[in-house]
């Protein structure tokens, strides 16, 4: 079971290329700060604009640093089933503990198409798969009925739920069962998601507040709801600020203030505006992670 605060890692760039040294230093810092798991080359890692070679290299760099200390869930989704299978095979060969596989975007498959896509990945590679349901980006929503079908497949072990529907985890748990790993894909819902049956969050905020995000999840797991709530309250303005413009531009700017990454993103994304930068700085100070 994957649980707690799992960071949706940014991919630092320098002069247009992946900054491998900064990235590995960043991954090691995340582990030292208590992050419970690493998720490279997802949405926050700018996977849509990484080449296949870069994508694979970032996964390899993550695993090299992790050295089994925390699980690595490698981004391996695609709107091409064959490509998703190829990326999943690479993740297994590289030593990842699981993959995060997004619902095929742009194609807008039917529920049967979604099932057959993930079944093909399940059948092709013996590696745990976390299904990534994010309708706002993929333009398709994996229904609870389809998720229940997928949960019966041996390698489909959980979901990253970015629907922002807090009734969804409860209905999924009732339908699918308690063994299915449910992770929030939205920092702003992370604590409430746990209350409805979740076990953690694949977090963007953890890029810049890893200790606080880990502490919040650990407090919840220990039943210290008051402490978890206090941390959540402190982080809420930061959750909002790092999504004030298309992600990951604001969070990469936030990471740059901590000296962890350049603020650079790849087109068609652009760097955070001055207005967004001001919101991020203020929220970081309010959260106690920037002087």
The helix/strand order is EEEHEHEHEHEHHEHEHEHHHH
Task: Tell the overall outline.
Answer: globular
Widest beta sheet: strand line-up: 4-1-10-9-8-7-6-5
Compute the number of structural domains.
1
Q: Characterize the largest beta sheet: strand count, sense, and whether it forms a barrel.
A: 8 strands, parallel
CATH superfamily: Aldolase class I
Mean pLDDT: 97
The number of helical runs is 12
Portion in strands? 5-15%
Total E-strand runs:
10
Class based on secondary structure composition and strand pairing: alpha/beta
Which assembly state applies to the chains in this document?
Answer: single chain
- Share of helix, binned: 40-55%
Low-confidence spans: pLDDT under 50, at least 5 residues? none
Please state the second-level CATH architecture: Alpha-Beta Barrel
What is the top-level CATH class? Answer: Alpha Beta
Tell me the CATH topology.
Answer: TIM Barrel
Rounded to the nearest angstrom, the radius of gyration is 18 Å
Alpha carbon gap, first and last residue:
37 Å
């Amino acid at each position: 079971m994957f649980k707690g605060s799992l960071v949706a890692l940014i991919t630092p760039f320098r002069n247009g290329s992946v900054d491998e040294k900064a990235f590995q230093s960043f991954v090691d810092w995340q582990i030292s700060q208590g992050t419970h798991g690493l998720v490279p080359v997802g949405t926050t890692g700018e996977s849509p604009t990484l080449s296949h070679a870069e994508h694979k290299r970032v996964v390899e760099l993550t695993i090299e640093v992790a050295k089994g200390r925390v699980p690595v869930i490698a981004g391996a989704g695609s709107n091409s089933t064959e490509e998703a299978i190829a990326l999943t095979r690479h993740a297994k060969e590289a030593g990842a503990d699981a993959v995060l596989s997004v619902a095929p975007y742009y194609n807008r498959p039917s529920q049967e198409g979604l099932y057959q896509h993930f079944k093909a990945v399940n059948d092709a590679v013996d590696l745990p798969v976390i299904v990534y349901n994010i309708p706002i980006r993929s333009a398709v929503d994996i229904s609870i009925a389809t998720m229940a079908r997928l949960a019966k497949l041996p390698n489909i072990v959980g979901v990253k739920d970015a629907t922002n529907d807090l009734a969804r985890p409860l209905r999924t748990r009732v339908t699918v069962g308690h063994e299915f790993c449910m992770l929030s894909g939205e920092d702003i819902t992370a604590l409430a998601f746990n209350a409805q049956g979740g076990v953690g969050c694949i977090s963007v905020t953890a890029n810049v507040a890893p200790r606080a995000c880990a502490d919040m999840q650990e407090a919840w797991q220990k039943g210290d709801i008051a402490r978890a709530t206090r941390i959540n309250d402190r982080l809420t303005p930061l959750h909002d600020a790092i999504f004030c413009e298309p992600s990951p531009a604001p969070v990469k700017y936030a990471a740059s203030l901590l000296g962890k990454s350049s603020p650079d993103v790849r087109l068609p994304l652009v760097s955070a505006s001055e207005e967004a930068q001001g919101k991020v700085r203020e929220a970081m100070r309010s959260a106690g992670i920037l002087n």
